[in-house]
Amino acid sequence: MGQGIHGVPFRAWDGVTGKNVAAYCPHGSVLFPTWHRPYMALYEEVIWLNAQWIAARYPAPQRAQYRAAARTLRIPFWDWSLDATMPPEVSQRTIYINAPEGTVNVPNPLYSYTFHPLPSEDEFPPIGSSSQPDLVNRQLQANGAALHSMTYALLTQQPDYGPFSNTRYDDARVLGRYNNIENIHNGIHMLVGNGGHMSNIPYSSFDPIFWLHHANTDRLFALWQAVYPESNFTTSQASAFGTLTTDAGQIEDINTPLSPFHADDSGTLWTSARAWSTRTFGYSYPEINDWAVNSSQLSTNVKTRLNELYNPTRRTSKRSVSANALSNTQLLPNAMDIQWLVNIEISKSDIPSPFFVHVYLGSAPIDPSTWSFAPNLVASHSVLDTSMLNTARADMPAKLYGQVPLNPALLAAGHTDLSSSKMVPLLKSQLNWRLQNTDDAPMDVGKLPSLKIHVVGQDIKPRVLADEFPEYGTARVYKEVTNGKAGGLQDEDDVK
Description:
The chain is an alpha+beta fold. Helix content is 29%, strand content 16%. The strands form 5 sheets. A 4-stranded antiparallel sheet has the order 10-7-12-13. Helix 5 runs antiparallel to helix 10. The longest helix has 24 residues. The chain is globular and about 75 Å long. 44% of the residues are buried.
């Protein structure tokens, strides 16, 4: 199926060799969105071919029906921005299916992966835990409002591919735009995995939910492309971590091969230039009806669909609203004319292993096992150790960026006056954070000297029309909120 392409066992696939003991997948790279596109297409092709074989085995009276269904089969996506709960289909150990021989009960392929043959513990060491869907859903739901807000803000505020594409891109990063598609993607890996395979990048693709997650990540990338058709992939970036075929420091750009995926039988590898459009692979998404329209019309249509999905028309364009007038729609960026954000940055060299930065309004609970779903949790920012091989060069910038929205938690807690005169003293006294690894063990902030957490406020002009996005103003940093707090931005620190 190709799960091993993404991470372990660090072997050549389809004859594409390299000199590094690493995986093919590029993280912290401008190739992150585009590399996963042919990977998902390969997975879908394997599923599709197997579906044709299965459909042909049904009894003659049913065969035509199943063959027709198999021909139109496409892999599903899990829109965790709209519903931060795992699909129920992934939590059932067995399922009943209508097989060619009749109704049968079988192991659920979306619940776990079965190895053929079972690998050695050197290749795939046991994690030592079992599935905990109830815990995972509690963590996801505690982050649901933040995921919703982050997704909409990213798609409506970031027109530049470089800072949109990955956690490490630095050149065009500004205060209000620390968010990126890889950062949001990392959060799902960590919240679902939390010490299991999904939070361990070299092994994550063996968890079946990986594919539902990455289909949605590709969908969000495609939506962004439709909204910003003029933002072509012209950005280059040095690889800080390296892959099986790429050395650290190598410049990656639109023509860098997306190893190990071949685009034809002659040995030509896919590149970002060739994989830029989903049409090349013969698929689209429900919100992207990209036929019989030009790029400008498509952009307008997709903006309307994004607003319908993630930011409905009901709004309150005031800095202060009545508490009893609040609704879920008013927790989104177009509901208020200011947004408050927590920006997080850290150097890759300081990351010992994957960990969470849990952000709170008020004190964190005493029991660390409840930190990820506490009632006063703002959101859990995920710092995912995405290097397949520790090849980061000391003379290269390897800083990772992320962002957590404060507005949903502030409004839900009844803080309806979001003016700076109210928010700065409130956040100075109530904003806290705790660091925690995926074994639920607290981490010492003092051991991560490059960690810089800071608060920014950003004026917004709410949208009015169905096909408009909010207009985002310049963001301002408020050092006084974090000054004196371990891991926070201090008065003497510089920031973009």
